[in-house]
Amino acid sequence: MALNRKLAIVDLSRGKIEIKSIPIEVRKKFLGGRGLDAYLLYNHTKQGCDPLGPDNTVMVSGGVLCATLASATARTHVMAKSPLGGLLGSCNMGGFFAPELAWAGFHHLVIKGKAEKPVYLWIRNGKIEIRDAKNIWGKTVTDAQWAIRDELGDEDVKSLVIGPAGENLVRYANVMTGIKNSGGRTGMGAVMGSKNLKAVAARGTMDIKIAYPKEALDYNKRFIDQITSAKVNQTQGALGTPFIWGATNSWGGVRTRNFQYNQMLYCDEVEPESIDENCTETIGPYHMTGCFGCQVHCRAKYKIPTGPYAGKYDEGPEYTSQGAFSSEPDIPSLENLLVANHLVDQWGVDNLEIGSIISWAMELYELGILTNKETDGLELRFGSSEALLEMIERICFRKGWLGNVLAEGGIIASEMIGKNSFDYLIQVKGVNNLHSDERATPALALNIATASRGSDHLRSRPAIDLYHLPQEVMRKIYSSPVPYDGPLSSEHTEYIGKPWQVFWHENCYMGVDCLGICKYHTTFLGATLPNFEDWSRVLYYNTGLELTPREIWDAAVRCNMIERLFNLREGLTRYDLKKGDMLNHRYFDEPCRRGALDVVGRVIDREKFEKMVDELYEYKGLDKNGVPKPETLKRLGLEKEPSHLL
Amino acid sequence: MEYRVAWVKDGFPRIRGPVWDVNKRLADEAFERKMKEVKKDGPK
Predict the structure, then answer these.
(1) For a 10 Å CB count at each end of chain A, is N or C smaller?
(2) Which domain does A331 fall in, by range?
(3) Confidence band (pLDDT; 50, 70, 90) for B18?
């Protein structure tokens, strides 16, 4: 049974491992994956702890549907207190690790303390061993995984690893698996590095019994039809996620030159079609590849065609790399994009964060806030591939004054650089925004301002808001599984109805993060894709856990609230520019200069924005300060947290 | 190199090359016009 997968508490300081069952009552309240991780974080992590100290706790998990007959249940989740913003740290990646962990007997790991020397965890069919990592420490992401396989003598071992960036405690280092499946955002790789934990390796052959296999298979056929017939997924299967960047850039929703422009011009080389045509020389006959149990196959494979890195193999680049290494620093070069993507994959650092922070530094350099003294003579100008690639290396290996400063993340870096550098930093809760520009899309602005892990598109973004869906379609989506008869607008530049959409998507995404399903199989990008009603059945057929769509929604609301409780405990306040639900002043003060004519000139209206936040707080059961009302906690069964049930 | 935006419509041509200049000019004109309107009306 999927539900009999265990939880292990690993104390690296004392070398002790405790294995526990997960009670069904806990499952019903927090499901699994990110939701149950949030419960464990709130219960196991010491308030106010140093994120890079031994009191921080790392959670690793797969979703409750992981490795069952349901589609695309490959997601691995990692959570801890973030060294980047000092609030919730959370990352989620595809690949093949989480299913292997489940076959090895586990859904959740709680990793505490700090090892005296570099170690890795070896998990094999119900047993966990802490092993010496002296032969693996210092290796890149791909080399580390192969070194583990060599050491264990098994090519089928799947590992979560950190690269040099994590070892060097770069505060936005990734946890990675495979060539490029990246647990990015919020620096979970740095937390692993601070514990001297290089990797978690798993190999399992413990079968997972499906509760109702015939029904599960039959229903999954319907899932596959939905998924493969959606135009958005067919496009992803051909061009990968870069199509999103191409579409968004065309109307003017892409940050360029940090935040000075909202569209990248003359970018033919890095358009999705160009990447598609140039990234065909690769290993094997297939241009695209996918994660465990997925029919979309959104990940391109490529060899770098030219320059000093010619012939190097990698995967992607995703649209996030297009934004980070092309539009934000304004470098219209395919080779630059492919090389930068390769470096961050191998050194294990968040592409969004590093591209964004270097572009911020480029703007500071052009303004004279940074000079050649701080850059050690490097001409840190927009459009310079040489400067971008050099800074990626300096940051990952903490070379030079500026490399070391930028490795600390935007907020600490702005304090070290001084002057008015913070005014130019596009971040929320210490996490730099991805490359999207939300000045013309109030719903998306509300999403990044209030997302639990900081500025982020994967926590509550109503991306389908950009499709101008007919009212009846929107009403159908947003009135289930809880009734909603308030206003909805098909116009993406509007403010009306957007707080409900953000609230709905926040719970939708938490639901799938608990189940372990990829967001590309949900209403994230496709209005016709599976939803709460489908998940209720899939959950029952695969695991026997009987929850109505409304009960899954309620669990998602509860899990989002415990993330909120954690953030409040660690210092979140509504209007704090560094730890609050607030946007940089540039969203309100600097109008869009590019893109579609109805986008040009737009800013976020501050008064309307505040009203949206108020309305969202109402839906979430928070007071005007963003703190949960006592009756909300009682309704969600959270009034006694931390309850220490596990 | 032939460009396409198949996800919108098969055979749909993509704006590229010199069209970026037209795009930029139209955006610049619209921006200037809207900024004048804002100044005339005053900040909201």
Answers:
(1) N
(2) 216-432
(3) low
* Residue A240 and residue A170 share a domain: no
Decide: A8 and A127 in contact? Cβ < 8 Å.
no
CA distance A234 to chain B (A): 8
| Single residue among A160, A181, A203 that ends a domain in this structure | A203
Within 8 A of B24 by CB-CB distance, chain A residues are 265, 594
* A234 chain-B contacts, CB cut-off 8 A: 7
Interatomic CA distance for residues A373 and A365, integer angstroms = 11
Identify whether A592 is part of a domain.
yes
Within 8 A by CB and 6+ apart from A478, the residues are A484, A488, A500, A501, A504
* Contact residues, chain B, for A243 at CB < 8 Å: 7
Distance of CA A322 to the CA centre of its chain: 16
Q: Residue A110: which residues within 8 A CB-CB, separation 6 or more?
A: A7, A8, A9, A10, A40, A44, A57, A58, A59
Chain A residues touching B26 at Cβ < 8 A:
597
Q: In this structure, are A178 and A239 located in the same domain?
A: no
What was the pLDDT predicted at A235?
86
CATH number of the domain to which A483 belongs: 1.10.599.10
Tell me: do A481 and A600 sit in the same domain: yes
Residue A467's Cα: distance from chain center in Å? 23
Predicted ipTM of the assembly: 0.83
pTM: 0.96
pLDDT digits 0-9 by tens, A131-189: 999 999 999 999 999 999 999 999 999 999 999 999 999 999 999 999 999 999 999 99
Interface test with B, best of A229, A248, A268, A334 (most B CBs within 10 A): A268
Residue A373 in any domain: the answer is yes
Q: Residue A597: which of B3, B7, B30 has the nearest Cβ?
A: B30
CATH number at residue A20: 3.60.9.10
Is the domain of A408 the same as that of A448? Answer: no
pLDDT tens column, A551-609 = 999 999 999 999 999 999 999 999 999 999 999 999 999 999 998 888 999 999 999 99
State the total domains in chain A: 3
Are A141 and A345 a contacting pair, CB within 8 Å? yes
Give yes or no for B12 touching A (CB within 8 A): no
Residue in A241, A264, A495, A594 to test binding to B, most B beta-carbons within 10 Å: A594
